[in-house]
Amino acid sequence: MQGGGTLDCLSREIASDWLDDMRARIEVVARNVELTPRDFAATLVGCIIGNETAKVLHVGDGAAVYRMADSEEWTVGSWPSHGEYASTTYFVTDDPAPSFQLTAIEGAVSELAVFTDGIEHLVLNFSTRTPFPPFFNQMFSGFKSDGTGKSRQLSRHLCNYLNGPSVCDRTDDDKTLLLARRNRNVAPQEHI
Fold first, then answer.
1. How is residue 99 annotated by DSSP?
2. Strand 63-68 relative to strand 109-115: parallel, antiparallel, unpaired?
3. What is the reported pLDDT for 55?
4. Distance CA 57, CA 46 (A)
């Protein structure tokens, strides 16, 4: 992207090269501390959002959910990939190469939520493979339409909610949730 590439040019081959680079860096770190790359196993949900298109690079569980600028409907940008057996998934460090998804989204993404597997079953309907709109509507209701950057107050409320009994009584896994909203008052840029 720094070399002038566009999101349309982001192919499976390029994404695979990125994952190979990540794996090589993890291998160096693992070797330096006398561990194996598997000791650094991690899933990945990476999103690059442009003005009229977006790409989601996804390895393993967790997911990305978005809403378009002209819509009230939430859509899953990349569905969690679970392994062959219960409580298994795929990792960036898988050998010989990780299984991954690269999803293209056409149109202007207005709101985006990226989350780890600890809250998948709270926010996704696995029987219909759809997001649970009330959850995302509630999460984004705290955003100010003209704010930019990180909201410490909103982050504190979100942390308290995710660590509260209504969530912790239903999951014992990691619970990370990243929320992003496009600021409608900022002039569009070539790359976001």
1. -
2. antiparallel
3. 97
4. 5
Domain boundaries, the chain: 7-181
Distance of alpha carbon 163 from alpha carbon 156, whole angstroms: 11
Rounded mean pLDDT for each run of 10 residues along the chain, 192 residues in total: 84 96 96 96 94 95 94 95 82 92 96 92 93 92 65 79 79 82 62 42
Q: Are 93 and 38 in contact (CB under 8 A)?
A: yes
Collapsing DSSP to helix, strand or coil, 147 comes out as: coil
Interatomic CA distance for residues 24 and 37, integer angstroms: 9
E-strand ranges in 119-167 read 124-125, 130-131
Supply 50's token pair: 């442009």
Q: Tell me how long the chain is.
A: 192
Residue 73 C-beta-side C-alpha neighbours within 13 Å? 5
What predicted TM-score, i.e. pTM, was given to this entire model? 0.84
* Residue in 57, 80, 72 with CA at minimum distance from that of residue 110: 72
For domain 7-181, give the CATH number. 3.60.40.10
